[in-house]
User: Fold these one by one.
Assistant:
Number 1:
Amino acid sequence: MTMMTGQTETSSLRVESDARTHEGRVRELNEDSYVAREKDGFWAVADGMGGHEKGEWASEVLTEQLGSADLPSDFDGACKVIAERIYAANDIVYAEARERGKQMGSTVVALYTQGRRFAVLWVGDSRCYLYREGALNQISRDHSQVQEMIERSLLDPGDAEGHPMGHVLARAVGVQGSLTVDVIVDEIQPGDIFLLCSDGLHGYVAEGEIARLLSRADPQQTTQALIGATLDRGAPDNVTVIAVMFTEPTILSIPQPATAA
């Protein structure tokens, strides 16, 4: 298992984050990978697919592209660069897949923050959740066959869990020559906790349990507990989690010393 922990202050908000990945109890290879650039306000999770070493390579192409991205100082420009790096990874993986004659690819979900704004960019079924004021909200929407059926009113959301098409992706990086990256932009509130995760978490741990563990409001304890909850359920897949918490910084007032009369 690998992990990365940090704490930063940016534009009047304190940021604390922790990232962990685990191969699980069944898989020999870990096809998940992640990016944790706390000082840049940037995190990402990628979940490779294709079996053997192909999925591992595909997810690493993504995180190498994102991890080395030179992000400009303006918010919109940084989001554009992140999307461009995802498109670049798509070109690399798709070209390799065609050359080998084998399908390979990866999901990706990325969180970029600057000041009190955030952007979530994603392809596939790796997710971004936002825990705010005691409620867990899924920010991203899975690019999966099941989600498409739900959106077309062909499947009731209550029947989605355990559906045989549950892990069939409708969109992934490297599977086709062209790609669409979805983006959501909104405002950060003090106390917000973001969770990026692969389906090794949300596929086996209920959202109610995820919310309960996020309520600890400590990124390191939260990621440890989330990985532990997955392992307790057999962890048949690789699992990667990143927790990012925003709080108001402590403000100290230092009065000027009195001068002698």
Number 2:
Amino acid sequence: MPRTQFDLPRFFQALGDRTRLRLLNLMGEQEVCVCYFVEILDAPQPKISRHLAYLRSAGIVSARREGKWMHYRIEVPPHIGAAHILRQTLHSLKNDKAMQSDRSRLSKACYSPARYSLEGAPLPMAVSEVCCDVRS
């Protein structure tokens, strides 16, 4: 089966939305359940799911189901230039105050799910193979 060509314009469009950047920021080097995105971004689940679907179609994230929970993580795009841009974007997000605030809220949610009314939700898991080595 022939491999489809990477859609570079779609990749750039995916990065051109603040909500999608916030989602990528929260994923960083870990896998995160949709329920945490909903709480931290204070947005309706359908809106979050729509943005995650866009990121999936752009080849930036992958998903897996665990029971009723959907987990998302960042994937390395197959296009070398896009992979570099994604790494740089993630690195830049680490310095943004609003993005730092989101990550802080996620870390608090990880330690206290009941605080965000997420009882029973699985905790975010660190991804064993870091896709975009953007550690500070």
Number 3:
Amino acid sequence: MKPSVIGRRGFFAKAAGLLGATRALSAPAGSAVRQERLTSGIHSSGRFEDTMIFERKPFTWPGGKSVAVWVVPNVEIWSFDSAVDAAIAPTGAAGPDVINYGTREYGLRVGLWRIADVLDSAGIKGTVALNSGVCETYPKAVDEMKKRGWEFMGHGVTNSRTLSSLSLDAETLVIHSCLQTIEKATGKKVNGWLSPGQAQTVNTLDILGQAGVLYTGDWNNDDQPARINVKTGNLYALPYCLIINDTNLYSAWSFTGEQYYQSIVDQFDTLVEDSRKQPRVMGLPIHPFLVGQPEHIKYFQRAIQHIKASDRAWLATGSEIIDAYRKVHA
């Protein structure tokens, strides 16, 4: 059972707010101005077709599989003097946040290679969400991942900075710089994107489309790939499954290794059952500084073994999933 994300006080405060909104919406016709204020800001993103999963035409993934699974190691770099979204409460002392910086650097130096061993043993290629700063600071790590045939998608320059506060010109520069750096380091075109912190601006999707990016894991609004309306290009949302992100399970919710394993298994097993009607996609987001810890790695390995044992699973990269989807929906 997942721990509560909000306390009792927060729950009742939220409930009171919802009750107040409900009463306002049921007010007499004379309160037209109030009604307008309540509803005027409600609108969709306008980026997706209004379609429910039950009304779509079924299809199958390659090999007759029904659940496409992509494993997403987040390989990130942080500024030494600026730890963002701390996994451990910092000491509060002046100077660098050594606790969090060191923990994350452990992921690159050690944890990532435990994960690589697990994926190698299972014959799985990861789809790396890569801060382009890693290419310049830890080139050996990029070379080792290249040797394994892993795919690389853009993940900004560093996780110390998100896109959310950038102007159009600044964001365009960051995205193009990230893509170009990774392509130069890997020798391959970058097809995918995951924003640092999954934080976007209103311009992000159009910039990605213009840059030739084919898919993004930022949107978690479906169990299938979904075409995104952009000014130019062909861009899709690929389910990343943020709900089973290890930063949620281990850091935010303080799950044990056994609870982490069970969450992955429950997610997969439910999608397998659902795929009797419609094929699904499952992302498995992981961070080397969490899953790659000695006490955690065996639970990740057990989860991978459970998925591999299913005859319904197609373990693929992000690009392979999007390519297969586009062929069916051409």
